[in-house]
Amino acid sequence: MKELEIxxxxxxxxxxxxxIEAQNFSExxxxxxxxxxxxxxxxxxxxxxxxxxxxxxxVAGDICDEINLHTIAVADEFKGCGYGRTLLQHLIALSKSxxxxxxxxxxxxxxxxxISLYExxxxxxxxxxxxxxxxxxxxxxxxxxYLNEDQx
Length: 152
What we know:
This protein is an alpha+beta fold and 152 residues long. A seven-stranded mixed beta sheet has the order 1-2-3-4-5-7-6, sandwiched between helices. The longest helix has 15 residues.
């Protein structure tokens, strides 16, 4: 049986995360950006591993009481197995544990799978950014998950 673990990313995870990033995005984060994320105090960078090999990750910023999900991805060969959902639920639980008020994110309007994942986990569309993405140029939807019942 394979061992599944979610843990804080280390410098040793950066290269594989950069490969996964390149599989998933037309404008991927560089290895330098991911290294900076590993070393930043206000960044939540976690990997999901099978038998200690990273197969997915997320990077989120923790600013005051707000969390901004910057990137989340799973390696192509592990897509459709629920690992993205597991990562997102880890971020939600972690955000609640640090008393964050909400999690915000941007997503390409054409990324139906990601939108479905976010909506199934309680995120609501809260806005739109015109021409936010490049390669190709595309608008982004803003999604927010309020973590405090009083904010809904």
